[in-house]
UniProtKB/TrEMBL annotation:
It comes from Planococcus koreensis. It is a multi-pass membrane protein. This is Probable membrane transporter protein. Signal peptide: none annotated. It is found in: Cell membrane.
Length: 237
């Protein structure tokens, strides 16, 4: 049963990451926590997300908004040490509960047409939030997804810019995780076994991306956020 669940998690999350630019960590991390301890789940997520971002980035590089990307990276550099400090000192169960409530609240705001104006300062701020979440619980997606959805960023730019950002942030976060919390054979064995599933997800996700219009893309975004928020909430109550 655990093997079936692992296959479903990795394949489903890979399809979402490839088709939307953000789905892997948001979908995979909560479910990986059912199979692995916190440190293992986070590092497996980081490794596989790094594989996906690296595999896709060349093909979609022309859609990247380089100015926004630079501001996101600058913000994340400040946020990542904060995330490591949280990971090493905080009660991660309470942290996940708080994150679930934030995700649900902001998703409801987006569903009811909440909008936010994109600015340079906000780019850096949400990059910082993403950086801190990456090193603390391995989930950089929620802040950027909520921000870009609120600014009505088109799906091509959203996918390309976030994937380029993840390529940077996953690399640094994985290094910091290994330095401060160590790693294990279980992490690298599970990651290696998952790579064929990731490659299959890349192929299926590319096919799906071509069929999704902007309106459908937005509804998929809301659905993923609601699902993840509710799962984290009930898992920690």
């Amino acid at each position: 049963m655990e093997i079936v669940l692992f296959v479903a998690i990795i394949l489903g999350a890979s399809v979402l990451q490839t088709s939307t630019g953000f789905g892997f960590s948001i979908l995979a991390t909560p479910f990986l926590l059912l199979l692995f301890n916190v440190a293992e789940a986070i590092q497996i997520n980081l490794i596989l997300s790094l594989v996906i971002s690296g595999a896709l980035i060349f093909k979609i590089r022309l859609d990247i908004d380089m100015a926004v990307l630079k501001r996101l990276i600058a913000g994340s550099v400040a946020g990542m040490p904060v995330g490591i400090a949280i990971f090493l000192s905080a009660d991660l169960e309470k942290l996940k509960l708080a994150i679930s409530l934030i995700i649900l609240l902001l998703t409801v705001l987006l569903i009811f047409s909440f909008r936010i104006k994109q600015t340079k300062r906000r780019d850096a701020f949400f990059g910082g939030l993403s950086g801190s979440l990456t090193t603390s619980i391995g989930m950089p997606g929620p802040p950027l997804l909520l921000y870009f959805s609120g600014t009505n960023t088109n799906k091509e730019k959203l996918r390309a810019t976030t994937l380029a950002f993840y390529l940077f942030i996953y690399s640094i976060s994985l290094m910091l995780q290994i330095i401060f919390s160590g790693t294990s054979k279980t992490i690298w064995t599970a990651s290696g076994l998952a790579i064929p599933l990731v490659l299959a997800g890349l192929y299926l996700g590319q096919l799906l991306f071509k069929r999704i219009d902007q309106r459908t893309f937005r509804f998929v975004t809301y659905g993923i956020l609601l699902f993840t928020g509710l799962f984290l909430l009930f898992d920690n109550l």
